[in-house]
Design a protein that fits this description.
alpha/beta, 499 residues, five-stranded parallel β-sheet, seven-stranded mixed β-sheet
Length: 499
């Protein structure tokens, strides 16, 4: 499907695609797709004020009714799944099935949030004082600023927006400058849901701000945006987190991941190979959960590496719109340059590189590359540094304790996994003395989280949690209340204060 058709299917107008100051380039072929308008930073005050006004109205709408809007959003996403998935492929370079899969994540979180809208449960607490009742309830908190990255251009917004909306909070979305069109399409889809929902939805319930880092900074600095959910690099998070904390705001940070897989002697190697290859090269290595470190028992390392080299050599690289393609482009030339720099550093540290060359034949343009497998003598500084490209470093281990120590000895703590048929090894890995990551899997790769489990990690990954489980609590404030329905006024802890 050509670029114009993809955009036409999502009702873009010529005015929306031309005359702006932000040039949108497709990683698929390097072609210019649009020039969209950017919001002046001076307008951010008005955007935030509108969100605050929307909050005053939306917080009074019953939560199940708020859930109805998210249900309608899910319906609209279902109707637009193919069209939006194609735009994800066009603008982010994902293969077709991954573009569609990302939209399915949006649909899934809407389904989850609709149910959650009737389960914003608090507590009734036994009071030590006669004639008293204690309760703990949750209330809407205010506008949520969502700052998202290019690699999941629509799913991350939906993870936040679906939960924020049922919790009573408006959303202001600042997407990556590399993927504004997918954000604009989502706003159109949201507006259709609002039109069906009716007048209970106030103006400004979901706003989109397109532009550079100054717009994100305006959200981060504003005391009228109590929650900031930011996805991106650890460097970005190190700026956002302290600034939000300094104004007593709340941040939900989803930052870097340097994810590892341990392959034990008992592992099913054929299954491990399948898990490794998808996790390491899916989305051209541009997932925060991409497998970047392979820690293999020395007794099986040679056999496994040979199997992986054979698999890598057979991977179809090319136009992500073609059904046969498994590896599409990197987002831009800068990513390709970063990959070559990291490979050079790994070589200087004693690494032996397989693959990693730029691909220029049989591709429509853009920055295409063969995934790289690098056998390393140990966990060097290059290995400990996440590079957002398809590089997987391979190291060996002798004991499980040694493997877990290697797994944990990096600054990041997002996702991890072990392939083993030994129940003791599996249970040790997911125990308190095992992986220190927010996600720990057994006999499945680190990539491909489902809606339903809270997503996020520890250490320099930021500690944030989005999507399922009790992540909804991150968008609300907790209030403990005590009601005295007696005719006396006893104090807690037996304190006596008679007047």
């Amino acid at each position: 499907m050509d670029h114009a058709t993809v955009l036409k299917n999502l009702d873009f107008t010529q005015d929306e695609l031309t005359g702006g100051t932000l040039t949108v380039t497709s990683p698929v072929d390097g072609a210019e797709v649009a020039q969209v308008a950017e919001l002046p930073v001076a307008d951010m005050a008005g955007v935030i004020a509108k969100s605050q006004e929307a909050f005053k109205a939306w917080r009074t709408v019953p939560a199940p009714r708020r859930g109805e809007l998210v249900r309608l959003l899910g319906e609209e996403l279902r109707a637009s799944k193919d069209a939006l998935g194609a735009l994800v492929t066009l603008e982010a370079g994902k293969i077709t099935s991954e573009g569609l899969g990302e939209v399915q994540e949006m649909i899934d979180i809407c389904d989850f949030a609709v149910g959650q809208s009737r389960q914003l449960y608090g507590l009734t607490i036994a009071s030590e004082r006669p004639g008293h009742k204690m309760t703990e309830t949750w209330h809407p908190m205010g506008p949520v600023g969502v700052i998202s990255a290019f690699n999941f251009p629509v799913a991350v917004w939906s993870w936040n927006a679906a939960l924020a909306l049922i919790c009573g909070d408006p959303v202001i979305w600042k997407p990556s400058e590399k993927t504004p069109l997918t954000a604009m399409a989502c706003q159109k889809i949201f507006d259709r849901a609002v039109a069906r929902f009716g007048d209970d939805a106030p103006e400004g319930l979901s706003q989109l701000v397109i532009g550079g880092a100054d717009l994100g900074a305006a959200l981060v600095d504003s005391k009228d945006v109590p929650i900031i959910s930011a996805t991106g690099s650890t460097r970005m998070g190190s700026i956002v987190g302290p600034k939000v904390a300094a104004r007593w705001g709340r941040s939900i940070l989803e930052l870097g991941g340097n994810n590892a897989m341990i392959v034990a002697p008992s592992a099913d190697l054929d299954m491990a190979v399948r898990g490794i290859v998808f996790s390491a090269v899916g989305t051209a290595g541009q997932r925060c959960t991409t497998l970047r470190r392979l820690i293999v028992h020395k007794s099986i390392k040679t056999e496994l590496v040979e199997k992986l080299k054979a698999a890598y050599a057979s991977l179809p690289i090319g136009d992500p719109r073609e059904d046969s393609t498994l590896i599409g482009p990197l987002v831009d030339q800068g990513a390709l340059d970063a990959m070559q720099s990291a490979l050079a550093s790994a070589k200087a540290e004693g690494g032996v590189v397989f693959g990693g060359a730029a691909v220029t034949e049989g591709v429509p343009g853009g920055a295409y590359v063969a995934p790289a497998l690098v056998e390393m003598p140990g966990q060097t500084e290059t290995v400990k540094t996440e590079t957002f490209v398809p590089i997987m470093y391979v190291m060996e281990y002798d004991t499980l304790d040694e493997a877990i120590e290697l797994q944990n000895d990096v600054p990041q703590g997002l996702s991890s996994c072990i392939f083993t048929l030994n129940v003791r090894e599996a249970e040790t890995f997911i125990s308190a003395s095992g992986s220190d990551c927010g996600i720990a899997n057994v006999n499945i790769g680190p990539s491909g989280a489902e809606i339903g489990g809270a997503f996020g990690g520890e250490k320099e990954t930021g500690g944030g949690r989005e999507s399922g489980s009790d992540a909804w609590k991150g968008y609300m404030r907790r209030q403990t209340s005590t009601v005295n329905y007696s005719a006396a006024l006893p104090l807690a802890q037996g304190v006596s204060f008679d007047i």
